């Protein structure tokens, strides 16, 4: 009981009122073991390879993110370290943010199976921004082709560990791959909400950590 109370107090102090004033590095395996990730309609498992520990996002396709124990992210930079698989339409990973609930949120995600494809069209579909549930990739690709998804200038391999960085402000979203100086994607923000939950989006992929640098 004392350990549980201590864990709750730690979360409140770390991710509560002080969250907007400090950088926070989320070790996803620790949060999973402690039961502090919010997991609904899906499964995750903890695994390790060598010195790297990570959570595995289940193989079942689902649009429900794995939520972190905060609900007040506004603006700033977010970095996710993750990796996918070279399975056509079978592996995704990304960052969900400004969420109102389990189905209404913005997201930037990667399609690793398109990173190094020889298909010129699929190459331009490597990184995607959307506002679920109504403005997903299908709607945006049809109504605004090329504006909300893009290719990667120097793409990693499909199964490489990748750092996906997004910069969120009130008007636009920028995405970067592996700390590149040039953005991979710049998209107009489609959600009028400027605050909400943040989490890990995707399936059949692995995620190691997520770091948030809130804007001052």
Automatic annotation (TrEMBL):
This is 3-keto-disaccharide hydrolase domain-containing protein. Keywords: Signal. Gene3D superfamilies: Exo-inulinase, domain 1. Residues 1-20 form the signal peptide. It comes from the Bacteria.
